[in-house]
Amino acid sequence: MNWRASWLLACWLPLAGQAVEVDPVPSVMWAFYHKQMLGDAPFVFDERVKLLAPPFAEDARQVPLEIDARAFKGEVVRILAWAELNPLPKIVDFEPVADVLPWLSIRIRVEQATPLRAAVLTRDGLWHVGSTLIDAAGGGCTAPSVVRTQPGWEERIGEVLGGRYPRGEFSRVRLQVAHPMDNGMVSGIPEFFLNQAELRDRNDRVLARLELFPAVSENPNLAFDIEGAGQTRLLLRDNSGNQFDAAIP
Description:
By secondary structure, the chain is mostly beta strands. It has a single domain, classed as SoxY domain (Immunoglobulin-like). It has two helices and 16 strands. The chain has helices at residues 3-19, 30-38, and strands spanning 43-45, 50-52, 56-57, 63-68, 76-83, 90-96, 100-108, 114-122, 127-136, 160-166, 170-177, 194-201, 206-212, 221-227, 232-238, 243-248. The strands form two sheets. Strands 1, 3, 5, 6, 8, 9, 12, 13, 15 and 16 form a ten-stranded mixed beta sheet that branches. Strands 2-4-7-14-11-10 form a six-stranded antiparallel beta sheet, with no helix packed on it. It is globular and about 50 Å long.
């Protein structure tokens, strides 16, 4: 090899190294989920998408998860989240439409130790993928419902508890919705879960849309960051057609 060829190779290798995408939580399932969830669309693993969860799930039925894509404020079209080794991996499909920051807090079930992913689609058509690992003793997806052991639980379905907490330039809205979120994996109990939600302002303008999946914990806990003041409404629907409407001052 002559000196010119050697120099060109030396210059090319660093550039090629920058283009290589290295999974921060190496997983044999990534190629499958890239196709299944993202349709093989262009993506980058991106540390600016922060996916926060405890290192160990003390209660695998109620695992707090925070998705923070505020680094892409104004550019986010859609956020998908999933747990790769869950039997029902999908968690949420979140669209911040107007005045809602690309941040979401939610509680989920995990069946075993698993990589967690949040994929953020920006307006340029590129998916930015945040990742983390969580360890767990297991069984969160197949454990019997606690809600169903409580007397009169049927009468409380759809009740929403929550409030708005000012945080300077925005408010954090925290909510809990009474619902068993049955995932169909407990013998004799079919799927029965909240699958659609919308945030609207007092003028009925849509602020955000969510599609929820059975990996979400029973009595779902949700939190959003909303710019501006004024009443917020939460509209919910479950897979049995029940609809619920709650106002948050």
